[in-house]
Amino acid sequence: MKKTRLAGVLALATTSILLLSACGGGAAPQAEGGASGEPATGGTVHMLQNADFSYLDPARGFDGGVNAFYRLIYRGLTMQAAGNAEDPNAIVADLAEGLGEQSEDGLKWTYTLKEGLKFDNGDPITSAEVKFGISRAWDPEIGIGSPYLKQVIDAPEGYEGPYVTGDLPTIETPDEQTIVFNLKAPFPEFDNVLAQANAVPFPLGTGGGSEFINDIIASGPYTLDSYTPGTAIKLVRNENWDPDTDDVREAYPDAWQFDIGLDPATIDERMIAGQSADVNAIAGVVQAASLPRLQTPQLQERMVTSPAFCTTYMSMNTSKDVFKDVKVRQAINYAIDRSAVQNASGGNQLADPATAIIPAAVNGHLDYDLYPSDDFAGNTAEAEKLLQEAGVGDGFSFTLDIRSQPKMQAQAEAIQQALAPLGIDVALNVIDTSTYYETIGTPSQQHDAAITGWCPDWASSASTFLPPLFDGRNITDKGNSNLAQINDPAINDRIDEIKAMTDLDAANTAWGELDKQIMELAPIAPLVLEKGVFLPGENIAGYSPSTSMTDLTIVGLTDPSRG
Known about the structure:
23% of the residues lie in helices and 19% in strands. The chain has 15 helices and 24 strands. It has helices at residues 64-73, 127-135, 148-152, 161-164, 190-193, 264-273, 297-302, 326-335, 338-344, 380-389, 406-419, 433-440, 466-470, 489-499, 504-521; strands at residues 3-6, 9-10, 32-33, 44-48, 78-80, 91-93, 101-102, 108-112, 171-175, 178-182, 222-228, 232-237, 255-259, 281-283, 304-306, 311-316, 351-353, 396-403, 424-431, 449-454, 524-530, 532-534, 540-541, 556-557. It has a six-stranded mixed beta sheet. Strands 11-12-13-4-14 form a five-stranded mixed beta sheet, with helices on one face. Strands 7-8-10-9 form a four-stranded antiparallel beta sheet, covered by helices on one side. The radius of gyration is 23 Å and the shape is globular. Mean pLDDT is 91; it is low at 1-28.
């Protein structure tokens, strides 16, 4: 989003891995193409990627690449269904025996844990460990990941997690198998909240400070064998994971090897050549420059395409003087040449221009364009008019935060070129990919604007698209996903009204209307909807990549003895 998820929230996180957080909108469009064979048990799957994961600690990480990784090593009460399920966006039980039981007033949700659950060290997983792991989300330093636990679960005022404050009384554990959550207000999609990456158990007292920066305590089918930050991660089987308790994760390979820090062009070259261990490798989207090479029958057979679930956009920080005037923000929306940004993103094979916030693949999408231009090439005349009205007709300058990644730099340069004729000078502040989302999610470090992306965190509605990005009451000192820092009472109130709707169809219609209402204030400039072309190794099977979050738990090798 994913995305962004910046906190993960902000998406389009690790370019060479998968693109963002969970994806959404009814029965999702599926990837099309190769790697659909039947996986066998054994062998090592390799993943080639440009950047390291944001964090091993799920309380900190919140982007699509790392969320996909977390599914291999962590488990929660619920989770998103397998990537090859009839509805891969459905929420299903994981550590819990079933989905939650809601009280009549909607304020209590009760779950019963399966028996025989263990961590990788052999310690049992009970309701106490689930409660402890979830309460870490409130820690002011560690809890910078998914925001939904803190937004939905009730907590005493000033609660700051188990290391600072101690016990969280609003999560009850009447016995080892039962856990009860008390909510701030009814929330019909609470099962989805518990499918977030930070709603996972840990042994009591663990994970404080930097303990989980370079190490983990796993509850999923794999555990950490070795980690060299910025270079490599190796996962091996967690011998204390019981597949009889897990209906989703297939865990075919004996090991996963993540090779990090590779140049995107090198990744494409290796995947196209497909030699040695690379027959057992997967990677992120193919770079635009490599697409013309994928024309041979052998490569066409291996190629997989995936639709867009996420919106790439440029946020405009409304707390900065340069973007406080709505007319300036509207002018930027008129002036941007989205066709040039599309070309910078790989052309029409890899991206479509975006004019709304919610993408068409997500329930709640409304098709509109408040700032139209011929062929999406920008409307300089309308932009000039608004800038004159705002008193900045002679232009101005601003700083744009971007990742140190070629595609995003090309997107930023397209924006620079579109705004230059208006006298607007855009300075690019290039930030390392591994720290990008943490940096722009910290208001004290954020500049005037940033390019990022967002994917919905679950599919049943658009409720995880607009509120994280535009609810002003959720602006935080760290892990902030409201990059525009917009705090508009009308938007906040409408979010509350829609969240209270029990008719999800009516709610999704309302989300689409709110999308348009927000864009009238222009806190962001939607840029493109990024599609994906992937090229797995020829020995990969069970691979269904997504531009949101690829399910690694169903990937395996056709012949584990190869490579």
